[in-house]
């Protein structure tokens, strides 16, 4: 996910996403939104015109990239980069090289406390190994970080609104006519069928802790590939809930617990087949979590 954010931000394209057209300039920093997060960036005067970009994903993860026209860092190569900020050291380890608009540099994931120090710090020292490669003054970062967080909050709201919009029609199949024949294309056969109640695949106890903490809800529509023995071989998301942790948990639970009677061709032979359904994730309304309700749409597992 971070890679997609970097690609959009380093191109400096403040294009609207999910209806969110966010662009601000605060304290000398430019703040823009992308599909999965927001970023604040500034180009410094001086040798090579260093550009610093601090990005924040909607899940709260942070990264910083630093590029310069004079640097020869190679895209994809790992570099030992650390940052000195407010008397603390951040980064270290393998930081991939990047290229952007003629500049070269690197990008580093950083821990959450970096954001606070970045907002209050006065200078940022950057090291390649033990060598200082840049010293940058930090001004206007407090108002820049405030704008960054405002952008992320608005983007979260847009994601949630989009997920609810999709959930409204999640029980309707994308193409009901595709189920007329089996996955082999042989008319007269049968599709795979679950051996047990699909409501047992997931319960409120399976609600991802991160999603509960961030109050994420939505519906994940998924497709399973079932082999001739009725064993699930693959799960893929065909319509996202808008939140990766919900989509990933959906497939993880399906792969773990789903069991099927295999599909059959017109001659009654077991064959590979596909099966589609959805899990609707609704935040638990009480503790301890209650069992899944029974008033969900047929073919949909409802978690709350």
TrEMBL record:
Listed name of the protein? Energy transducer TonB
Residue stretches making up the TonB C-terminal domain: 206-282
The UniProt keywords, alphabetically, are: Membrane, Transmembrane, Transmembrane helix
- What InterPro entries would the database entry show? TonB/TolA_C, TonB_C
Record keyword Metal-binding present:
no
Membrane-topology annotation of the record: Single-pass membrane protein
Give the residue ranges for region: Disordered. 172-202
Q: Highest lineage ranks of the organism? A: Bacteria, Pseudomonadati, Pseudomonadota, Alphaproteobacteria, Sphingomonadales
Indicate where this protein is primarily found.
membrane
Regions annotated as coiled coil: none
| Top-rank taxon, per record | Bacteria
Q: NCBIfam families from the entry?
A: tonB_Cterm (TIGR01352)
Q: Tell me where in or outside the cell this protein is found.
A: Membrane
């Amino acid at each position: 996910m971070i890679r997609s954010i970097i690609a959009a931000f380093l191109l400096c394209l403040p294009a609207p996403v999910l209806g969110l057209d966010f662009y601000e300039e605060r304290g000398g920093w430019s703040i823009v939104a992308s599909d999965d997060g927001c970023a604040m960036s500034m180009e410094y005067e001086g040798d090579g015109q260093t550009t610093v970009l601090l990005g924040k994903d909607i899940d709260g993860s942070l990264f910083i990239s630093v590029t310069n026209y004079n640097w020869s860092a190679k895209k994809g190569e790992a570099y030992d980069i650390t940052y000195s900020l407010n008397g603390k050291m951040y980064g270290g380890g393998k930081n991939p090289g990047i290229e952007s608009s003629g500049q070269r540099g690197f990008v580093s994931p950083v821990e959450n406390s970096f954001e606070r120090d970045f907002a209050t710090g006065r200078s940022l020292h950057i090291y390649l190994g033990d060598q200082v490669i840049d010293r940058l003054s930090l001004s206007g970062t407090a108002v820049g970080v405030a704008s960054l967080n405002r952008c992320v909050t608005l983007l979260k709201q847009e994601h949630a609104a989009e997920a609810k919009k999709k959930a409204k029609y999640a029980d309707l199949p994308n193409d009901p006519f595709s189920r007329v024949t089996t996955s082999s294309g042989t008319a007269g056969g049968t599709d795979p069928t679950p051996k047990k109640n699909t409501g047992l695949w997931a319960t409120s106890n399976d609600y991802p802790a991160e999603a509960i903490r961030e109050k994420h809800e939505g519906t994940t529509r998924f497709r399973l590939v079932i082999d001739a023995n009725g064993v699930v071989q693959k799960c893929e998301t065909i319509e996202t809930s808008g939140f990766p942790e919900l989509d990933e948990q959906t497939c993880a639970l399906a792969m773990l617990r789903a069991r099927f009677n295999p599909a059959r061709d017109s001659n009654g032979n077991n064959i590979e087949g596909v099966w589609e359904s959805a899990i609707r994730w609704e935040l638990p309304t009480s503790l301890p979590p209650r069992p899944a309700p029974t008033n969900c749409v047929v073919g949909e597992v409802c978690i709350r």
